């Protein structure tokens, strides 16, 4: 029997020609989250790493130790939290403000920045490609490209676009710099030349940003903000607000909630970096759950190398069987565009040897 809640209409996520009801967002039963958005471990969930001591000078024992810590966290958890990371809190405060202003606009206006058929980028209220298991989220997806950001901003905000455009480009520039620091530390910790990864990130043409805003949901036990997935890219720098909802799948197949920490970023390894390091660093499945009372904002910055970059594990990391055939990021990216939706890490399996 369909309950009254399920009949409720969902105006916040309905495009103009698409009237959606709560029942349209109900996921198949095996995906229903048993852990709610505010359930966390008593102890620390994933490791917390502070860059405080090394932002000024990256030499010495402290740097060595932190690089090792980062590699260990990435190899065991695939996730860690970064504090004292050097990104000014004004930058994150400002982008939060501007993004909420954007999402608070009438649907009609936001849809002026809507995704077009040929490019799966821009604003979307629900992802129409998904068919079933609709994510309970509004999403803005853009390449790290000033032109694309400007395009979206001008289409939606007209001559009022400047504060939004400035906040976005300031945020992306800051995250890009942070990403380079993390890549250098990972390379160093893995015993590779410090620029092993960063040298492939000079063109910013395929790094992407995805902004998720999850409205309050009357039926959070049967809906999901974002279903279980791994990030196909290389490295994700995720900002989440103070609400909570990110959950990570552990080795024992149990979900664990990632407690929000003010002024922190969550870093996770993507499929491409797992392949690049011959499985040493792990890309781990995660999801976002929603809740009845509070809207939630998260911003995922997906770092990607130039499309021509060949993703091939260096000999230093082939200490056991080679797990993946070499592939270019461009090829993988094209596959992702065709495949539309991935559940778990299936996208990477096409390059897996002996699979
Ligand atoms: O909202 C979150 O915490 C998770 C977002 C995420 O995993 C993604 O955008 O890939
Ligand atoms: Fe993700």
From TrEMBL:
* Gene Ontology MF, one: oxidoreductase activity, acting on paired donors, with incorporation or reduction of molecular oxygen
Q: Does the keyword Metal-binding apply?
A: yes
InterPro entries the UniProt entry points to? DIOX_N, IPNS-like_FE2OG_OXY, IPNS-like_sf, Iron_ascorbate_oxido_reductase, Oxoglu/Fe-dep_dioxygenase_dom
Alphabetized UniProt keyword annotations: Iron, Metal-binding, Oxidoreductase
Output the superkingdom of the source species: Eukaryota
In this protein, which residues make up the domain named Fe2OG dioxygenase?
Answer: 205-305
The record's annotation in PANTHER family points to: 2-OXOGLUTARATE (2OG) AND FE(II)-DEPENDENT OXYGENASE SUPERFAMILY PROTEIN-RELATED (PTHR47990)
What does the similarity note say?
Answer: Belongs to the iron/ascorbate-dependent oxidoreductase family.
Q: Which named protein is this?
A: Gibberellin 20 oxidase 1
- What is the organism of origin for this protein? Heracleum sosnowskyi
